[in-house]
Task: inverse folding
């Protein structure tokens, strides 16, 4: 039994795949099946150590971006993609898996095309409310299309009529959906009883969110404690600026800044947090799994405006409020934080909505589907 996983080079593609891989391994052990050979095809391994720990063999794929505007890079990237398809075809043919699982993005295109040519069953998963071009294309031949937001189904109407679309939700790794509350305040050297805000700017951080937080920092620490994930590239500047802003402030210890939160730090931060500020990528589902109220700030120029669509879809559930970048002034941000924190009924409603939004069995559902296909649709009892 062989399964290939493929996706772009971001954490938003990598970690949901890892969640499904972990679920596959749990099911295989539980059902006493022969362990499958697992492969990860992507332009970058992203986290080679984790791939090694889970027994995933990495295969590099090459793919260029096809921009919607004129650029000479489109020409060089076209040839890059052609070479990527040839190499993926050879690798996929050599492995000849039972099924290919695709998370979308240009990095998955060569592998999905190779699977299509070789008539290998394909399952795709779409994390966004508005699918990207690769998943829209792959949806035309995929045997199953899993979606995180029900709003995405309208992009796969033909497949939906054939019963191929399932609202699985987003796979989230077990470790990332288990906040640690016990000792969380002590971990960050915070006071008990003071409400805590967790700011997540994505793996690269967000300069616009960082600036808004710094601009209103003195007012924030007067009222709250802040855990700020600013991005590794931004850490030095943000830390030095915050130090200057809070130089003689009596509550300066209420602010902690990190470039990146490792697994333990994120679990502790989730346990300590009363409110989360975040971008509108895959982190939405981690926040929902924690059952936390949130303020979502989508990227204005995301591909296909998918972040705004994600944010509005999540807000429709009642789990968050949305501030668009154009409206992200220090005063607006502070007022929105205070509005949510001071309204206990609203706050509890958002927490309940977040928990209801999250589908905790998404990883198992997708793992079971992949194993069923790999075992010739044999039911797993």
Result:
């Amino acid at each position: 039994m062989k399964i290939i996983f493929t996706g772009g080079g971001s954490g938003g593609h990598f970690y949901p795949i890892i969640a499904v891989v972990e679920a596959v391994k749990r099911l295989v052990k539980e059902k006493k099946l022969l362990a499958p050979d697992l492969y990860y095809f992507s332009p970058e391994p992203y986290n080679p150590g984790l791939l090694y720990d889970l027994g995933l063999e990495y295969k590099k794929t090459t793919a260029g971006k096809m921009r919607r505007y004129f650029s000479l890079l489109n020409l060089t990237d076209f040839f890059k993609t052609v070479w990527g398809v040839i190499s993926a075809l050879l690798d996929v043919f050599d492995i000849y898996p039972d099924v290919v699982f695709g998370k979308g993005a240009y990095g998955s295109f060569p592998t999905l095309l190779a699977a299509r040519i070789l008539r290998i069953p394909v399952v795709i998963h779409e994390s966004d409310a508005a699918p990207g071009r690769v998943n829209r294309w792959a949806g035309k031949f995929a045997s199953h299309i899993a979606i995180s937001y029900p709003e995405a189904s309208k992009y796969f109407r033909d497949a939906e009529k054939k019963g191929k679309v399932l609202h699985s939700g987003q796979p989230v790794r077990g470790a990332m959906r288990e906040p640690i509350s016990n000792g969380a305040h002590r971990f960050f050297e915070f006071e008990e009883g003071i409400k805590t805000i967790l700011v997540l700017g994505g793996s690269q951080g967000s300069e616009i969110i960082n600036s808004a937080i710094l601009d209103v920092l003195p007012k924030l620490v007067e009222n709250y404690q802040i855990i700020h994930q600013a991005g590794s590239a931004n850490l030095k500047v943000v830390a030095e600026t915050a130090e200057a802003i809070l130089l003689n402030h009596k509550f300066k210890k209420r602010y902690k800044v990190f470039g990146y939160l490792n697994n333990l730090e994120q679990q502790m931060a989730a346990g300590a947090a009363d409110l989360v500020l975040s971008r509108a990528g895959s982190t939405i589902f981690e926040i929902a799994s924690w059952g936390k109220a949130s303020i979502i700030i989508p990227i204005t120029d995301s591909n296909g405006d998918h972040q705004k669509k994600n944010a509005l879809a999540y807000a429709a559930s009642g789990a968050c409020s949305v501030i668009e970048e154009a409206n992200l002034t220090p005063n607006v941000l502070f007022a929105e934080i205070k509005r949510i924190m001071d309204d206990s009924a609203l706050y509890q409603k958002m927490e309940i909505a977040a928990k209801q939004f999250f589908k905790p069995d998404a990883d198992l559902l997708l793992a079971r589907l992949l194993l069923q296909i790999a075992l010739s649709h044999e039911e797993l009892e």
Summary: The domain at 2-172+360-374 is CATH 3.40.50.2000 (Rossmann fold). Residues 377-381 have pLDDT under 50 and may be disordered. The chain has two domains: 2-172+360-374, 178-357. Residues 73-95 form the longest helix (23 residues).
